[in-house]
Amino acid sequence: MTFPSPLIGILGGLGPQAGLDLAEKLTRLTQAKRDQDHIPFILFSLPEMVGDRTAYLLGREEINPAHAIAEQLEKMSTMGITIAVMACNTAHAGPIFDVAQDLLRKKGIDLPILHMVQETVAYIREAYPQVQRVGVLGTQGTYQTGLYDQALVAAGLQAIVPDPDIREHQIHKAVYSPDFGIKARSDPVSEEAASRVLSAIRHLRALGAEVIILGCTELALAVREGEIDGILILDPARIIAEKLIRKTYPDKLILPD
């Protein structure tokens, strides 16, 4: 079988619902009047193969998820995929993303991988040039590595991050709690998880954030509104979906009104 080109690859399973959510956003942003008009993509969702990214970054897991990620990206390349994206913010932390890229380079694989964090920050600079103070909601791994903080500072922006107590008891538990967390209950997200995410958003707003990044892909499953209490909420999955279309089939992108 010969696949069409360009062909998008989505590395999902990180968690699974986040990969489906990114694929849905890609489809929703595509101009199409029939099945055949939609953009071709392949979604990889093999969650049992990739260890938890935050656990590795916090030193709770010894095996770097970069190895499993690189294996799947290599498989994408052999299938004819021409551009890839990972449906996980935390996986873009240097200790994972950079290692995965090095593993691919050593095998001579040149597969373009859009960087969700860099694309999100670039989007803010272009779409909201007046914004200076950017709130970041993310996993403990995201905060530990300064993933968004460093990218925002490099772009001349100020990163506003939650207090440690909010990170642990609101955001982390909203994502990871086995009882009510998004990883355990993603469709629909539990009221408890949604409430904790909303509390964290209001905390960042009180700290002076002008916009807020949902810096964990699964947080977008709990926050469907584009604005809460007058503050803009930015979803990196939607931003990267739009970027994918612009780089592959730009004439099919549904432009905002």
Give a topology summary:
Layout: E1 8-11, H1 16-28, E2 41-44, H2 53-57, H3 66-78, E3 83-86, H4 94-106, E4 113-114, H5 116-127, E5 133-137, H6 140-145, H7 147-154, E6 158-160, H8 164-176, H9 191-206, E7 211-214, E8 227-228, E9 231-234, H10 236-248
Parallel strand pairs: 1-2, 1-3, 3-4, 5-6, 5-7, 7-9
Antiparallel strand pairs: 8-9
Helix pairs in contact: 1-10, 3-4, 5-10, 8-9
What key attributes describe this structure?
257 residues; alpha/beta; Rossmann fold; 2 domains; 5-stranded mixed sheet; 4-stranded parallel sheet; 10 helices
Short recap of the structure:
The chain contains 10 helices and 9 strands. With 257 residues, it is an alpha/beta fold.
Structural summary, described in words:
The protein is of the alpha/beta class. It has 2 domains: 8-115 and 239-252, Rossmann fold (3-Layer(aba) Sandwich), CATH 3.40.50; 116-235, Rossmann fold (3-Layer(aba) Sandwich), CATH 3.40.50.1860. The protein is built from 10 helices and 9 strands. The N and C termini lie far apart (39 Å). The mean pLDDT is 96.
